[in-house]
Design goal:
It is built from 7 helices and no strands. The protein is mainly alpha-helical. It folds into 2 domains: 87 residues, Orthogonal Bundle (434 Repressor (Amino-terminal Domain)), CATH 1.10.260.40; 33 residues. Helix 1 packs across helix 3 and helix 2 crosses helix 3.
Length: 120
C-alpha cells in the first residue's frame, strides 16, 4: 500500500502498524507493561497503539526498533516481515523468544549446530 512514489500512505500505516507492533512485542516475549516501562509510557498507551486507536511518534518507533531488535522502521510496515505469531506453534514461539534474548556468541554456536544438522 504505497503511493506511486513508493511511499507508504497514511491509510497503509494506520492499517499495518498496529498489528505489527503487537506481533513484534509478542515475538520479543514482552508484555505491554514491560514495553511501557522501557518507554516510560503506560501499558494502556501501548494497547492503544496495538489496537490502532493511537499511533506512536517516530522517536518512539525508533526506540521500539531497538527494543524489538529490528533493523529499521520499514519492518513495521513491510507485510512480508515477521510471521504472525498466532500462526506459529508454541514451541516455535518459545524458540523465537529465546533466540531474541541470546548473546551473539550463543547465536553463532546455534547456527553452527543447525548447519551441521542440515548437512546430515
Amino acid at each position: 500500500m504505497k503511493n506511486k512514489d513508493g511511499i507508504y500512505t497514511v491509510q497503509a500505516i494506520e492499517k499495518i502498524l498496529p498489528e505489527k507492533l503487537k506481533t513484534f512485542r509478542k515475538l520479543a516475549g514482552l508484555t505491554t507493561a514491560q514495553v511501557g516501562s522501557l518507554l516510560n509510557k503506560t501499558p494502556s498507551a501501548i494497547t492503544l497503539w496495538e489496537t490502532g486507536k493511537a499511533l506512536p511518534d517516530v522517536n518512539t518507533l525508533l526506540k521500539l526498533c531497538d527494543i524489538y531488535k529490528i533493523a529499521d522502521l520499514n519492518e513495521f510496515l513491510d507485510t512480508n516481515t515477521a510471521p504472525d505469531i498466532k500462526t506459529l506453534a508454541k514451541s516455535e514461539q518459545e524458540l523465537i523468544k529465546l533466540w531474541r534474548k541470546a548473546t551473539p556468541t550463543l547465536k553463532t554456536a546455534i547456527k553452527t549446530i543447525l548447519k551441521q544438522c542440515d548437512k546430515q
